[in-house]
Amino acid sequence: MSIGILKEVKLSENRVALTPAGARYLKDAGHSVLVQSGAGEGGGFSDEAYRLSGARVVRDASEIWQADLVVKVKEPVRSEYGYLRSGQVLFTFLHLAADAELTASLVDKGVSSIAYETVSENGRLPLLAPMSEIAGKMSVMAGGFYLANHFGGNGVLLGGVPGVMPGKVTILGGGTAGMNAALVAKGIGARVTIVERDQERMRYLSTVLGPQVQTLFSTRQHIADELEDTDLLVGAVLVPGASAPRLLDREMLGSMKRGAVFVDIAIDQGGCSETSRPTSHEDPVYREEGVVHYCVTNMPGAYARTSTEALTGNTLPYIKVIADMGVEKAVTVMPGLLDGLNTHKNLLTNKAVADSLGMKYGRLVTR
């Protein structure tokens, strides 16, 4: 099978979907790999490195889109919709619950699209996890940065100093992103609370993170109470495939300290606050209700080398199975891929996406 690796065109997206080592792995398995020139530059991977790995480097994106299997990092943007075609297999982050236009295009064109963020394995999301880890760690780094006065923050150093109370970090959601945010916040000495609704998850977090990190059952009142003295709020809630739950409204944000910072990791799925709207690395923040909002939709793109290597290490076995067998056989061998299949043969095949967008759902029947 021919496998195409595109240069990402989304603003500030420096990641690439496959490392040169990954290209060699697929080439050795008997597949042809096409890489668009410059695709790996943001992560430090040269065209020559791909050539030495057996890939063919081409300049024209349209040639990449003609591959049997197109592997990307981020969802196609509007300028790429014209390349979508029937029978094409697309493997990438999609976040369709927040994008009705792209969903309709994929269905109408008959694309078999597999979303990294909904591929499952024993109750986990193995392809989303590494990016969630990076985004979680980044959330505290970015939040602490924008707490500085000259960015409109309230001037609180999260770790504090002797004789001064450290800042308070409240994290909504105790999944992979939330736990990694807590690890960094704890590591710099901040006061940390994770708001979560799963009791078993809270027990796990308490065991792993220790007494410095508090857990709190998620209710509207508990969240409102925590916000009053929070310096950095991290939105890390996730419902796989579906729109992020709106846990915050304008009134709740308005109760926070002036100059507090809100980092909404859930913005890819629509965001978890009424006040959230997508931003980019070029223009990452805005102010609503006196709170600095950081809502960058591709946070891990800021650390392209780490992100690319982490993503490739997790996606490569799935890419090989899809390339070896095709979509319909691959989902029987790796059942978690069936959860990842979002569109196929003019059907929207992910129920959470269909419910979020109010569109018709049609599950692929496997034998």
Structure description:
The protein is of the alpha/beta class and 367 residues long. The protein folds into two domains: 2-125 and 304-357, Rossmann fold; 129-301, Rossmann fold (3-Layer(aba) Sandwich). It has 13 helices and 15 strands. The strands form two sheets. The protein has an eight-stranded mixed sheet with strand order 3-2-1-4-5-6-14-15, with helices on both faces. A seven-stranded mixed sheet has the order 9-8-7-10-11-13-12, with helices on both faces. Strand 12 (285-288) and strand 13 form a beta hairpin. Helix 5 (129-146) packs across helix 6 (176-187) and helix 10 (304-325) crosses helix 11 (327-333). It is globular, with a radius of gyration of 21 Å. The mean pLDDT is 96.
Topology:
Layout: E1 2-5, H1 20-28, E2 32-36, H2 47-52, E3 56-58, H3 61-65, E4 69-71, E5 89-92, H4 100-109, E6 112-115, H5 129-146, E7 168-172, H6 176-187, E8 191-196, H7 199-209, E9 213-217, H8 220-227, E10 232-235, H9 250-254, E11 261-264, E12 285-288, E13 291-294, H10 304-325, H11 327-333, H12 336-340, E14 341-344, E15 347-348, H13 351-357
Parallel strand pairs: 1-2, 1-4, 2-3, 4-5, 5-6, 7-8, 7-10, 8-9, 10-11, 11-13
Antiparallel strand pairs: 6-14, 12-13, 14-15
Helix pairs in contact: 5-6, 10-11
